[in-house]
């Protein structure tokens, strides 16, 4: 896959095969964060890798799926759950624009996984207090996001954003995700 194919197909996935994410993909995810550009090269983003089935099971009820969809459509069922989570943590003792650095790290790690066929869902709607305790995250480290990973069992495609669709993703008749995106003309203007 070239870079534009990777960017086009690296969508958010929310239903997964019950198959472990291999260690080489987990290693790539770590490297993708390690190699990320960041302000003043301060490298304040950290990961907690949740790989054991027992810990993954404890994380599942603490994340919220697909806010635009009713739970019966957007929340993965027991046999559709992700098999690996990475907690994305900021070391707040390190000064800088942690939000931007975290965003770049999220983009890189999800792209690295997708390059090996592993889909992901960046999750901001999470129970931070409960996850912070569960994962043993201590000050000055701060939990920012969870990212769910697994082998997707559905497709996800870009559709043009219209007045009808707005920004809300929806499922088509095959339960595949349709993700409306604004036109290139709306995104960029040339002078
Ligand atoms: C910062 C951020 C937070 C998100 N939080 C959640 C979440 O809590 N639950 C969820 O199901 N999806 C979440 N998503 C996924 C978005 O809904 C998804 O990226 C968006 O609908 C566009 O779809 P796409 O990633 O396929 O382009 C989040 C994405 C980002 C970037």
Number of strands: 7
| Average predicted local confidence, pLDDT | 98
Query: Structural class of the helices, strands and pairings?
Result: alpha+beta
Q: What is the CATH class designation of the largest domain?
A: Alpha Beta
CATH topology description of the largest domain: NADH Oxidase
Q: Label the overall shape.
A: globular
Number of helical segments with 4 or more residues: 7
Note the beta-strand portion.
15-25%
Question: Spans of 5+ residues with little confidence (pLDDT < 50)?
Answer: none
Q: CATH superfamily of the largest domain, called what?
A: NADH Oxidase
In this entry the ligands are: flavin mononucleotide
State the assembly state of the protein chains: single chain
Domain module tally: 2
- For the biggest β-sheet, the strand order reads 1-2-4-3
Largest sheet descriptor: 4 strands, antiparallel
Terminal Cα separation, in Å?
Answer: 32 Å
Proportion of helical residues: 25-40%
The gyration radius over C-alpha positions equals: 17 Å
**CATH architecture identity of the largest domain:** 3-Layer(aba) Sandwich
Order of helices and strands: HHEHHEHEHEEEEH
Explain what this protein looks like in three dimensions.
- Residues 8-151 form the Nitroreductase domain.
- Keywords: Oxidoreductase.
- Belongs to the nitroreductase family.
- This is Nitroreductase family protein.
- InterPro entries: Nitroreductase (IPR029479), Nitroreductase-like (IPR000415).
- This protein is α+β, with helices and mostly antiparallel strands and 191 residues long.
- It has two domains: 3-153, NADH Oxidase (3-Layer(aba) Sandwich), CATH 3.40.109.10; 155-191, putative fmn-dependent nitroreductase like fold (Single Sheet), CATH 2.20.180.10.
- Helix content is 31%, strand content 21%.
- It has seven helices and seven strands, in the order H-H-E-H-H-E-H-E-H-E-E-E-E-H.
- The chain has helices at residues 3-9, 23-34, 53-59, 71-74, 98-115, 128-134, 184-187, and strands spanning 45-50, 84-91, 119-123, 141-150, 156-160, 170-171, 177-181.
- The strands form two sheets. It has a four-stranded antiparallel β-sheet, with helices on both faces. A three-stranded mixed β-sheet has the order 5-7-6, with no helix packed on it.
- A hairpin with a 5-residue loop joins strand 6 (170-171) and strand 7 (177-181).
- The longest helix has 18 residues, at 98-115.
- It is globular.
- It starts with a helix and ends with a helix.
- The site of flavin mononucleotide has 14 residues, from strand 3.
């Amino acid at each position: 896959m070239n870079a534009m194919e990777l960017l086009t197909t690296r969508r958010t996935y929310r239903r997964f095969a019950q198959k472990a994410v291999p260690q080489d993909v987990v290693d790539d995810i770590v490297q993708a964060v390690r190699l990320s550009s960041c302000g003043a090269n301060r490298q304040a983003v950290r990961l907690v890798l949740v790989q054991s089935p027992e810990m993954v099971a404890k994380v599942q009820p603490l994340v919220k799926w697909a806010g635009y969809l009713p739970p019966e459509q957007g929340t993965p069922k027991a046999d559709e759950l992700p098999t690996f989570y990475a907690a994305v943590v900021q070391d707040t003792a390190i000064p800088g624009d942690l939000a931007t650095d975290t965003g770049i790290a999220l983009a890189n790690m999800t792209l690295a996984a997708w390059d090996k066929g592993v889909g992901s869902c960046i999750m901001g709607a999470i129970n931070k207090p409960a996850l912070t305790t569960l994962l043993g995250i201590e000050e000055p480290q701060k939990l920012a996001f969870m990212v769910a990973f697994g082998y997707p069992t559905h497709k996800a495609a870009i559709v043009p954003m219209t007045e009808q669709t707005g920004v809300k993703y929806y499922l088509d008749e095959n339960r595949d995700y349709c993700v409306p995106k604004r036109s290139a003309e709306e995104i960029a203007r040339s002078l």
